[in-house]
Amino acid sequence: IMGMASLRRLQLKRHHGQAVSHMTRRQRICTLCLKQSHAAADVSRRGLLQKGLLGTSVGFLHSQAGRLIVSGDIAEARGLLDSSSDVYRMAQDVEKRLRQSTVKFQLENGLTVLVRQRRNAPVFSALTYADVGAYDEEGILGVAHMLEHLAFKGSPRQSVNFEKESALLEHMDDVFEEARVCTDPRKKGILLDRLDIMQREASSLAESNAYGSFLARQGAVGLNAETSHDATKYYVSLPNNKLELFFALEAERFQAPVFRDVYSEKKVVLEERKMRVEGSPMGAYQEEYAKVSFGNNYSRPVIGTEEDIDSIGRKDVEKFFREKYGPDALTITIVGSVDPEAVRLYAEKYFGSWVSSVGHTGLCTNEPLAIPSFSSDDDRCLRGSNSAGPILLRSWYRPGVCDTAASIPLDIADECLTGGRHSRLRNALVMTSKALTVSSHGTFPGEKHPCQMLVYAVPTAVSDLQEVDQIIMSEIDAFCDAGPTQQELLKFIKGTQSAVFGVLQSNAGMASALASYENLTTSWENIYKEMYTVVDQTPRSVADECSKYLTASNSFAGYVYKSM
Fold first, then answer.
1. Strand pairing class (102-106; 112-117)
2. Is the pLDDT assigned to residue 482 strictly greater than 90?
């Protein structure tokens, strides 16, 4: 994923390179440890993005198993996994490790803090998880994503003359509001030109990239953020003697933000959208697929439409922040060589006085499946054509991840169907030359709310879309009749266990897992509790649960033909 996230990484590398010569020996050692720690997390994040998962689910963990185990612990992991007589042993080991080293506390204002000690290097990874995403937008779309960009613009302290800058920002808002409602193209053009001039003047009153530059000089690695339908996450890793600095800066970012550069940043976001959507052969089709196949807010693009981005003003971002962001909507996770009592002290010191409350409701339960109103069965298939075709999409409506009874069996189905060289759909389609490739997303495009399990395939020249679709449905029916084989089930169990064990070895990966489980499943402890649930699955229990959802009448299809 490109756009500002990649630009920030590039800027961070440049500033980091400039700062290296001024580092002490300890800072250089810490930075090396941070890079090594963050490497595993980057694999995890790429996997999450590729699978469409922005929370860490057990299904994802299994698919990443082989790559996440750190070499130093691989012998122990293998020893545990090879003990087929006691499949609970590793779950018990993970439970013991986590319960001994993980602390959770909550401030009076609702801010949740999770801490896990790992004293293998003098560093820590921090994740601020805002349980607010594009799903929560009302009216203009793309505001959550825009806010994530602007969260790196700093506070009043990064201003050369904040009184003058603040007055100018207010004046710019007035000009933008006038341009937004103006129907005279000539007058609107004059107003927008005037806005550009004012934006350049306002930018001269603030230090450019001050937030990222300062953190880079302190040895920060992995400064980044991402927005999904479900949440917005802010990442950084630092030497452990910068713990108080992290809390001071993070508190300032969320309690005294200045959403400067909105009108110039919109141009960056528009370019990001053009690259993702207009510049991708399947971009427009994927947006339309979500729009017509979902009956909830997963139907809307995270980045927003071009018209939405054009119409976003600074006041819109401030309103969204004021209504959705608050201490009770945030979870801060710290993993590394830190003292939990010091974390508690700094959290109280810097966040304790924040009394704003957005009335955050947290996890959504008992939501209906996201099936829109179809007037006929023909509406259950979206047909189109472009240069990327032919491509087949088939999705089934399913509950969100908080429904553990359904989620784990559906994760098993997802893995059995497309996970690995010997998966069922690969054998039925790729090995028979019916398709060039086949893959799936267990929870598309998010997992907090009712979503879809999506399978997509690229037929070969000798196959047609309907034939491939029939093969997929036949394999799905067979799975729902008998469930996984004992071998498939054991593979999933062992893979899940080894992947969780691997995540324990990464500061950034563990921070992401703790925060995701805390917000998506009501408790971080479900990391190990779900391992027991996975072990308790049987072919019959999986088949019974999957047969409730993986049916033709509960599905939607997409046929993309090759454009001539």
1. antiparallel
2. yes
**Structure confidence at residue 248 (pLDDT):** 97
Give CB contacts under 8 A, 24+ apart, made by 475-481: 475/417, 475/424, 475/425, 475/428, 476/417, 476/550, 478/424, 479/413, 479/416, 479/417, 479/424, 479/543, 479/546, 479/550, 480/543, 480/546, 480/547, 480/550, 480/551, 481/543, 481/547
Sequence-separated (6 or more) residues with CB below 8 Å from residue 279: none
Residue 320 confidence class, pLDDT cut points 50, 70, 90: very high
Nearest-angstrom CA–CA distance, 337 and 340: 10
Asked if 437 and 457 count as a contact pair (C-beta separation under 8 A), the reply is: yes
| DSSP run (H or E) holding 492 | helix 486-503
More confident residue, 142 or 491: 142
On the 0-12 / 13-18 / 19+ scale of CB atoms within 10 A, 133 is: buried
The three-state secondary structure class of 548 is coil
Strand, coil or helix: 244: helix
Q: How many CB atoms lie within 10 A of CB 74?
A: 14
Compute CA distances 4 → 26, 33, 52, 79, 314, whole Å.
31, 26, 19, 43, 18
Report d(CA 1, CA 344) in Å as an integer. Answer: 35
* Residue tagged 């034939």 (tokens): 467
- Residue 212 pLDDT greater than 60, yes or no: yes
Q: Are 124 and 507 in contact (CB under 8 A)?
A: yes
46-82 residue pLDDT tens: 233 233 322 333 333 333 333 333 333 334 434 444 4
What is the CB neighbour count within 10 angstroms for residue 384? 16
Total length of the chain = 564
The answer to whether residues 542 and 549 touch, using CB atoms and an 8 Å cutoff, is no
Output the CA angle 266-267-271, nearest 5 degrees. Answer: 115
476: which residues sit within 8 A by CB, 6+ positions away? 417, 550
Is residue 428 scored above 80 in pLDDT? yes
Q: Is the distance from CB of 323 to CB of 358 less than 8 angstroms? A: yes
- Coil, strand, or helix at residue 95? helix
Percent of the chain having pLDDT more than 90? Answer: 69
**Average pLDDT score, the chain:** 84
Q: Measure the CA angle with vertex 461, ends 459 and 465; round to 5°.
A: 40
Report the percentage of the chain scoring pLDDT > 70: 84
CA–CA distance, 127 with 114 (Å, rounded to integer): 10
Q: Specify the DSSP element, H or E, that contains 485.
A: none
Task: Say how many Å lie between the first and final Cα of the chain, rounded.
Answer: 29
Give the pTM.
0.85
**Mean pLDDT to the nearest integer, 197-206:** 94
Please say if the pLDDT value at position 301 is more than 80: yes
Question: What's the DSSP call for residue 186?
Answer: H
